[in-house]
Amino acid sequence: MHAPVTHKADMAIRAANVTLSLGSNDASVSILRGVDLEVPYDSSVALLGPSGSGKSSLMAVLAGLEQASGGSVLIDGLDFTKLDEDELARARRGRIGIVLQAFHLLPTMTALENVAIPLELAGLDDPFGRAQSELEAVGLGHRLTHYPSQLSGGEQQRVAIARAMAAGPKIIFADEPTGNLDGSTGTAIVDLLFERRAALGATLLIITHDPELARKCDRVISMQDGHVVESAA
Amino acid sequence: MSLSLAAIWRIARRDLSARIRGLRLLAICLFLGVATLAAIGSLTAGIADELSRRGQSILGGDVEIGIAQREATQAEMAAMRKAGAVSETIRLRAMAIGSQIGGDSLLAELKAVDNVYPHYGALTLREGGIAKAPAKDEIYIGPTLSERLNIDTGETVRFGEATFKVAGIIAEEPDRLGEGFTLGPVAIINMLSLPDTSLIQPGSMYEAKYRIKLSADEDAAAVAKTLEAQFPSAGWDITDRSNGAPGTRRFIERMGQFLTLVGLAALVIAGIGVGNGVSSYLTSKRASIATLKVTGADSGTIFRIYMLQILAVAAGAIIAGLAVGSVMPMVIGWVAGDILPVAPGFNLHPLPLFVSAVYGLLIAIAFALPPLARARNLPAAGLFRAIVEGNARIDQRSAIWVIAAIGAIITLAVVTAREPLFSLAFIGAAFGLLLLLTGIAW
Hints:
The complex is a heterodimer of chains A (233) and B (442).
Chain A: E1 13-22, E2 29-39, E3 44-48, H1 55-62, E4 70-75, E5 78-79, H2 85-92, E6 96-99, H3 111-121, H4 127-137, H5 153-165, E7 171-175, H6 183-200, E8 203-207, H7 211-214, E9 219-224, E10 227-232
Helix pairs in contact in A: 3-4, 3-5, 4-5, 5-6
Chain B: H1 5-15, H2 24-53, H3 55-59, E1 63-68, H4 74-83, E2 85-98, E3 105-113, E4 123-125, E5 130-131, E6 138-141, H5 143-149, E7 156-159, E8 162-172, E9 186-190, H6 194-197, E10 206-213, H7 220-230, E11 237-240, H8 246-284, H9 286-294, H10 299-336, H11 350-376, H12 396-415, H13 420-441
Parallel strand pairs in B: 3-9, 6-8
Antiparallel strand pairs in B: 1-10, 1-11, 2-3, 2-7, 2-10, 4-5, 4-8, 6-9, 7-8
Helix pairs in contact in B: 1-10, 2-8, 2-10, 2-11, 8-11, 8-13, 10-11, 11-12, 12-13
């Protein structure tokens, strides 16, 4: 294991000429074809684009869930291209929060236990007290001991948001967080997401197909065929 | 930063469903394997202990001197009497002939005993009560002899030229195990009656046994050694109370070893079930593993979380297996009854239980590690992609642990064996078969 390479961080996210190819040499597929991106701290960015344009893959690379095939990725000053899978996992602790479309809560754990997980993994004090505060902040103070199967879709996504926010991350990645929810619930979830981001002063990168949601962000980036094709404030 | 074991356990316990559905196969395989090994080990140890505990009554004395085809000389008798009180028996095979006209005959073990017999234990009759040597011209016969010749108490039976009145049917002959292999049912007469049978002639096949009773604080082995040294060329077969029934003990220990190896082979086969159970459990946990990685768990943390779960379930199964295995000797003793040479008492035998537990633990580790080592390498991106390229190879450290666990199983089997070479060959064949089957399935 080598020491993480850190740089002076003037940007929450700084990606240059990022490429990502999946599969073996013979059947290699290029997913990202040279993406350049800079996202300042305490800002929000919407990532738009058709299915297969590389939005989720870009988010996976930026969140350290996937290792880029080429280019450079600096996240909060940390060079993610120099880290292996385990170092990336450790780098996410307390730094990055992730909200996914399908919630991905641990089914054998209560809401409180799910939210406490990243806090325990980060070795933070009083993980259950913090988790409870975060669940109360997302309006689920009365659902602490409920299992995911006992919660509605909207409530599960609130738990996922609380889990992503609980450790006070600097950067939050959200991949179509309202994709599995009905319109009104989705709107409430988006409002909650932005409200919690503002409270934390975190950077938000959100993938969406919804132009209405994208308009709430400071900046909108459009992707197509693995390239950033448009970036507008 | 590495999480403490307590923190890892807190996460592992919560992730492990209370119903442990996915690990039931692991639990059942280990439970059955450990229970089998613990039962075999406890039964063997129980019988061996009982043989040692009852060494005096099984042998009929503290020291026994067997002499073939002759009785002890005066000098030999004097030396024995100097050591302690002596009881003499003479045993030979002879035809027992029923009292009816043209009555059946049956080969029997005729035993002539003196009035001191038995030094230890009790000769009991079916009619009740403890008996000493029968009166002259009377005989006690075994139940088989009674049934086969259709004679009962009060009737007569003939051995050689003497006719005896049946004074009782033997319920328990205290030194039966110490007599070793017999060809027919037993009949006991008084030593004084033996000459009347005219069965002891020059060249007759018989064995005289002299059982010496020592005072409680005397060292039987030392006395035996001293006596043997006094008559080095007397052709004695001498033994002491610590090994009252050497033939039976050897048989039990060999049978125990054989059954242990069969149980171990069954446990190794159960290990395949353990591997499959863990593999399918971890497959069902792919989403949870990827989620934990997304929230900051590295591969080492994943490995420890699921290893702890597997060990916790394995420990439960092993403890249950030990509990069942430890009471099995009592159940077997109750079911098998007289088939066993002695009934094993209900005692905990720590060594066989410990060995069974270690076998169970090593099998769990050896077979659970490969799927666990693959699961730890599951990428966090597994949540995004429907198909994640599986890594069929396991890392070097896990491979070393698997090899070490297998090596420990072999070492344990060889070290605890009565015949190490036989055990080694048996295990070699079992693993060879396993490799062959794996090769065929490749």
